[in-house]
Amino acid sequence: MTLLDYSKERSVAIKAVLSASKVCQSVFQHLVANETLTKDDKSPVTVADFSAQAIINTCLKEHFPADPIVGEEDSKDLQGDSGKVLREKVVSLTNGVLSESEQLGEQQILDAIDRGNYTGGAKGRHWALDPIDGTKGFLRGGQYAVCLALIVDGIVQVGVVGCPNLPVNYKEPEGERGTLFIAVRGQGAFQRKFSDEKEEAIQFADISSTAESTFCESVEAGHSSHGDAVEIAKLLGITRESVRMDSQAKYCSIARGDADIYLRLPTSKTYVEKIWDHASGNVLVTEAGGRVTDVNGKELDFSIGRTLEKNKGVIASKASIHDQVLKAVQQVLNK
Ligand SMILES: Nc1ncnc2c1ncn2[C@@H]1O[C@H](COP(=O)(O)OS(=O)(=O)O)[C@@H](OP(=O)(O)O)[C@H]1O
Ligand SMILES: [Mg+2]
Ligand SMILES: [Mg+2]
Ligand SMILES: [Mg+2]
């Protein structure tokens, strides 16, 4: 049996995520209010979401033409007369970060976005892409993340997360921003600056009890119950104030020890989590010495399609305290 090292997937994913992160940064600088659409589920989507998906899917097609992609966005809102204004912006922004030889026509960009329409599943390989995770964070100048993962036979093997607004060192919040996180299953977790290829290994903080830990939680109370988190913190003896941020930057933050526990506590009976919101973070946390389950203690199942239909909520923490955290979560949720 040949052992797959995924080195090509790793380097292509890094290149794609960095290039898409650049388009997001450039859009933010030129952001105008009417460039934001609201989707059926009331979540926002911007020109940057579309451009980032076009760039990454084009890069994946070039290097892995046979690989299908599960991407969050589709080109529906860019089609026809009603989509003309937005479409033209997406075309010019996308080409703005591509070199002369890489320039894309309008149809190529729409087709690239729609390469993300794969249904997912348990067999073979596919990519999971969230071109901007935390679009609300992006719009408010806070944390957001460009997230790309390779799933093989239902297991996440490679995860790359670009966090354009995350300080390289959380102890220097005013220092350089733009941090890239990289993990390959069985090969550890790493971070690097956007500006420098040098990587450093990362791991969870060295805590010995939950009382020493800090929560990292959603900004939006509608995405994770803040009230339940307070109750759980009490049970775990946590006194430190929670860190709140949008996006999978939460997985990145705990993986490098800025905080310790990420809880996504169900707020509705009907919301189903999407694979692109959790795939890269899953392998990153695991490789940094953490564990991820849902609130029932089940591993996240990436093998059933575009959603995590079989799971409810997410608990990510250092592996050694995970059982204790899970127990506290269940105690509060079962009340
Ligand atoms: N009701 C509900 N419950 C849980 N999750 C939801 C819900 N609605 C949306 N979403 C998804 O949340 C993604 C953003 O997650 P965040 O962790 O950034 O949320 S938060 O803004 O910090 O609260 C967000 O991802 P993006 O659309 O990529 O920003 C959505 O996929
Ligand atoms: Mg979205
Ligand atoms: Mg998302
Ligand atoms: Mg998104």
Which secondary structure elements does this structure contain, and how are they paired or packed?
Blueprint: H1 7-29, E1 36-38, E2 44-46, H2 47-63, E3 69-71, H3 84-97, H4 106-114, E4 125-133, H5 135-139, E5 145-152, E6 155-167, E7 177-184, E8 189-193, E9 200-201, E10 215-217, H6 226-236, E11 243-244, H7 249-255, E12 261-264, H8 279-287, E13 290-293, E14 314-318, H9 322-333
Parallel strand pairs: 3-4, 10-11, 10-12
Antiparallel strand pairs: 1-2, 4-5, 5-6, 6-7, 7-8, 8-9, 12-14, 13-14
Helix pairs in contact: 1-2, 1-3, 2-3, 2-4, 6-9, 7-8
The structure holds 3'-phosphate-adenosine-5'-phosphate sulfate (PPS) and magnesium ion (3 copies).
Q: Could you explain the architecture of this structure?
A:
The chain is of the alpha+beta class and 335 residues long. The protein folds into two domains: 7-201, 2-Layer Sandwich (Fructose-1,6-Bisphosphatase, Chain A, domain 1); 210-333, D-Maltodextrin-Binding Protein, domain 2. It has nine helices and 14 strands. The chain has helices at residues 7-29, 47-63, 84-97, 106-114, 135-139, 226-236, 249-255, 279-287, 322-333; strands at residues 36-38, 44-46, 69-71, 125-133, 145-152, 155-167, 177-184, 189-193, 200-201, 215-217, 243-244, 261-264, 290-293, 314-318. The strands form three sheets. It has a seven-stranded mixed beta sheet, with helices on both faces. The N and C termini lie far apart (50 Å). The mean pLDDT is 95. Bound molecules: 3'-phosphate-adenosine-5'-phosphate sulfate and magnesium ion (3 copies).
